[in-house]
């Protein structure tokens, strides 16, 4: 009888957990399911940041401001929930300077923080234990008819459901960051060594299953 | 008797409100006291974003990456709680690329979003009604013995209490962004016209009282 009660309580607990996770997904488009990785694992931490965040700042070389850097708050997705591939995709309109800049000069930088994830509430956002990731590379427009565009659109629209209703006449198009350099801080002692290959390879066995 | 009860209930409510605000300040260093301004008031919205946010992404021209933009998550403060002046101050170490970059090329961009403030939870971070601000200008090291450094340090240490205990041998110094251009999105229809003078002038009467 005691065992049955425990089972019932566990089921009830599981039900409520599922309910709250579902509710979170409904509002935010993605559940925060994985926990923060061990900071010693640079690839895991960087990929966790890319997978769990929904927005960041994308910096380009400004055409309007004589070559100065220009940061812009943008939404992004690196894949379907739980199956991110680490490459950030963006849904940008040329009405906004960032897309226009990238079409003239692809050099870009994309920065995200652990702070919005709520796992470093007790430390300052600049404290090195509150991890932060900057991906540098080339911001490229994706051929709208390619398989990659199909994948990226699904990734973006799943994480950001309202994107599919954004005005058609704004000519939103999908861009991706081709990563060339990674800057990760997730502990004391300066930037963690992490190559692009190590970053992209992380969890690749899981990706093949999609 | 009914009036007395109402008075008591109100006092109780006020007590709990104060308690929670105090608790919030203790953890976050600053209370979110002001409400979101009318989006039609560009200066008020921009200054609200600068005053209420605690971190953003500061982009510089990378010396290590051949002049590419380089964004970096940093903490900042624009003044004492409720008395921000709109100029972002930073506490940076030359061990980090951002400070080194700025000492070679001052051109910088600082981006913040409304999203961390919790006032646009129902919209996507890239939705134009979830406001975002990018300040472009020159990132300058402040003379450590100046009155401005004293003010900026008080502003930074009040908003980010742990900064005062950061390692002395890391040579943290105060930088400020001298704003030259403002990019604000807070509604549909593209960037809001807002001059630097309008931005800095906003609420100036209050500032004189400090």
Can you offer a commentary on this structure?
Two copies of one chain form a homodimer. The longest helix of chain A has 27 residues, at 2-28. In chain A, strands 2-1-4-5-6-3 form a six-stranded antiparallel β-sheet. Chain A has two domains: 1-31; 33-208, Electron Transport, Fmn-binding Protein, Chain A (Pnp Oxidase, Chain A, Roll). Chain A is α+β, with helices and mostly antiparallel strands. Chain A has six helices and six strands. The first copy, chain A, has helices at residues 2-28, 42-52, 97-104, 147-159, 196-201, 204-208; strands at 55-61, 69-75, 89-92, 107-113, 132-141, 173-185. The model of chain A is unreliable at 1-8 and 10-33 (pLDDT under 50). Chains A and B meet through β1, β2, β4 and β5 of A and β1, β2, β4 and β5 of B. Chains A, B: It is found in: Secreted. Chains A, B: Residues 1-23 form the signal peptide. Chains A, B: It comes from Cinnamomum micranthum f. kanehirae.
């Amino acid at each position: 009888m005691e065992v049955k009660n425990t089972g019932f309580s566990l089921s009830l607990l599981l039900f409520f957990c599922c309910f709250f996770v579902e509710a979170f997904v409904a509002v935010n488009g993605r559940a925060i399911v994985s926990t923060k990785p061990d900071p010693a694992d640079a690839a895991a931490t960087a990929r966790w940041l890319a997978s769990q965040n929904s927005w960041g700042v994308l910096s380009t070389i400004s055409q309007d401001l004589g070559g100065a850097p220009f940061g812009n708050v943008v939404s992004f997705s690196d894949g379907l929930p739980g199956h991110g591939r680490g490459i950030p995709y963006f849904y940008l309109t040329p009405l906004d300077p960032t897309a226009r800049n990238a079409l003239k000069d692809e050099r870009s930088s994309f920065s995200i923080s652990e702070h919005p994830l709520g796992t470093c509430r007790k430390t300052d956002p600049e404290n090195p234990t509150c991890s932060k990731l900057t991906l540098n590379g080339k911001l490229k427009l994706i051929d709208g008819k390619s398989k990659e565009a199909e994948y990226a659109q699904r990734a973006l629209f799943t994480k950001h459901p309202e994107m599919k209703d954004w005005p058609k006449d704004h000519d939103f198009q999908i861009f991706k960051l081709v990563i060339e350099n990674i800057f990760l801080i997730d502990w004391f002692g300066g930037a963690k060594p992490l190559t692009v290959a190590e970053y992209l390879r992380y969890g690749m066995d899981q990706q093949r299953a999609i």
